[in-house]
Amino acid sequence: MYNDELKPRWWNGRPACAGRHEGLTAIMYLVYVLKSLSQHWFYIGLTNNKQKRLSQHNDGQVKSTKHNRPYVVIYTKKFENRVLARDYEKYLKIRSNKEKLLKTLGFLT
What we know:
Layout: E1 29-36, E2 42-47, H1 50-58, E3 71-79, H2 82-92, H3 95-104
Antiparallel strand pairs: 1-2, 1-3
């Protein structure tokens, strides 16, 4: 990646985040879809603690979801790292992809 003459002294050839979690228990990340029980409204999010995050949504602690409470989780997908989960979350937040998923789950016709 770097020419030896231009390489910073700290550069070890690996990205900054490489090895940061070595020896630790793997953290699983979830992309989830919530359905409001009071409105025909869906929310897509990302977390590593599903129960805590659902509780935050239902307790009104999340600005973007507090007006359509309560919620139920209708879909989750697990990922090994946050980067992959974030990419999938961004993919689902594109309207056409969100609609495809909701049709597959039977929430849109």
